[in-house]
């Protein structure tokens, strides 16, 4: 998402017939939204006497979440750029053998880069989760549901990124690299899904008491 645009403009762009912004961009933006909710929970905890014993942890979580919020927004823009590079590679001429080879290499290079962006989103989802968990477990209890929404959004961001990895690696001719990417992605998504379920259960149990 271009942060200079309004939410309405962003939604209209997603809804249009243009392929960008698409699922990869939205996945990264979900990560930014999750981080923002985590920051909100931290802000509602900082300075509260009731939470004096966790102030340092919450302050640290907030600083980390601010960093990831920026990371996700940058990755959202990079996803658009990566997709456009793939499309531009497909537009290259192929009228002779040399041109065809140049075009083929450009497509493969651009596709590999297009897979790398959602992989970065996935890695950021994995890394940010511990700080959302801190906000959920130690932050203002009146905002525990907000922390739960943050966790759910990280799950959405991660699974969206994973799907974008799948579609890109399926076009890679170098199957060794494709398998390596998928192996890393599988490990990350399994861990994230497990953590989302875990924190969601903790929050549901807390709200049911």
Largest sheet: none
**Tally of DSSP helical segments:** 6
CATH topology-level name: Four Helix Bundle (Hemerythrin (Met), subunit A)
What sequence of helices (H) and strands (E) makes up the elements?
HHHHHH
| 3D shape | elongated
Unreliable stretches (pLDDT < 50, length at least 5) are none
Helix fraction bin: over 70%
Key words describing this protein structure:
Formintransfe-cycloase-like_sf, single chain, Four Helix Bundle (Hemerythrin (Met), subunit A), coiled coil, elongated, 80% helix, 209 residues, mainly alpha
In brief:
This protein has a single domain (23-208), classed as Formiminotetrahydrofolate cyclodeaminase monomer, up-and-down helical bundle (Four Helix Bundle (Hemerythrin (Met), subunit A), Up-down Bundle), CATH 1.20.120. It is 80% helix and 0% strand.
Task: Please give a structural write-up.
The structure is a single chain. The protein is an all-alpha fold. The chain has a single domain (about 25-209), classed as Four Helix Bundle (Hemerythrin (Met), subunit A), CATH 1.20.120.680. The chain has six helices and no strands. It has helices at about 5-15, 25-45, 55-90, 95-140, 145-170, 175-209. The two termini are about 40 Å apart. The model has no long low-confidence stretch (mean pLDDT about 95).
């Amino acid at each position: 998402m271009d942060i200079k645009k309004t939410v309405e403009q962003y939604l209209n762009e997603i809804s249009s017939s243009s392929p960008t912004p698409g699922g990869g961009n939205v996945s990264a933006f979900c990560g930014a939204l999750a981080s923002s909710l985590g920051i909100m929970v931290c802000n509602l905890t900082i300075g509260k006497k009731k939470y004096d014993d966790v102030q340092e942890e919450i302050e640290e979580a907030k600083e980390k979440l601010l960093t990831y919020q920026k990371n996700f927004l940058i990755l959202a823009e990079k996803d658009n750029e990566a997709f456009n590079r793939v499309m531009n590679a497909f537009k290259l001429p192929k009228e002779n053998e040399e041109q065809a080879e140049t075009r083929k290499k450009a497509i493969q290079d651009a596709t590999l880069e297009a897979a790398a962006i959602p992989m970065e989103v996935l890695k950021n989802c994995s890394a940010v989760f511990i700080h959302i968990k801190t906000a959920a477990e130690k932050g203002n209890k009146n905002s525990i549901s907000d922390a739960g929404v943050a966790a759910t959004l990280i799950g959405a961001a991660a699974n969206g990124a994973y799907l974008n990895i799948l579609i890109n690696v399926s076009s890679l001719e170098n199957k060794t690299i494709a398998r390596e990417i998928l192996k890393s992605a599988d490990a990350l998504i399994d861990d994230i899904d497990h953590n989302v379920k875990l924190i969601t259960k903790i929050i549901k149990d807390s709200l049911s008491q």
